[in-house]
């Protein structure tokens, strides 16, 4: 018998996969905090802390196809809306208490993503010892490009990662500068949550974070993936 609902269930968040018609259904969205030493320092830390995690709701993602401009609204309640350009890893399987070797085998692919942040609200959360959701998990806070299957991406561990705002380079680093590598981050996270196919992990942003305002354009680049083009409206 077909299940009846009192209202229509929310739509499943799905992402396109480069070079395929099949889609990637998103389950959860995890994010790693302060995973590049120079970014940790610019946020007032030493850059040697263990990884820590927060989440965004899956429906905060904004899928942006290659060669198109995605649009995100300038969010409410902030006057310091920050970009954080990040490599996103997409899992094709999961588990708990994974070794680094097992974690590497869970990777389905990679995408370019922006962990957009209401920095003033996040700073207030930190000061008050409150959770970060209002700073990190708001609507439209996760623009993300298509997923590239891992087999189609050459040497992601040494890819370059950069972000231009209005044509000016603001962030410029390499994935090799991650404090915790992608498999290490997955392994750590799997000790806290059972990971499953469909889980995404934003792996952290390099130094150079800053604010954008309405009308600004952002172009995120990770070598081997399509540019992520986003406009603030
Ligand atoms: Mn981030």
Number of strands: 18
Question: Which strand order do you get reading across the main beta sheet?
Answer: 4-3-15-8-9-12
The biggest sheet amounts to:
6 strands, mixed
SS strand fraction: 25-35%
Structural Rg: 17 Å
| Level-2 CATH architecture | Alpha-Beta Complex
Distance from first to last alpha carbon: 45 Å
Q: Which molecules other than protein and nucleic acid are bound?
A: manganese (II) ion
What gross morphology would you assign? globular
The CATH topology is Fumarylacetoacetate hydrolase, domain 2
Within CATH, the superfamily carries the name Fumarylacetoacetase-like, C-terminal domain
Helix content: 10-25%
CATH top level assignment: Alpha Beta
Structural class of the secondary elements? alpha+beta
Any idea how many domains? 1
Instruction: Name the average pLDDT.
Output: 96
| SS element count, helices | 5
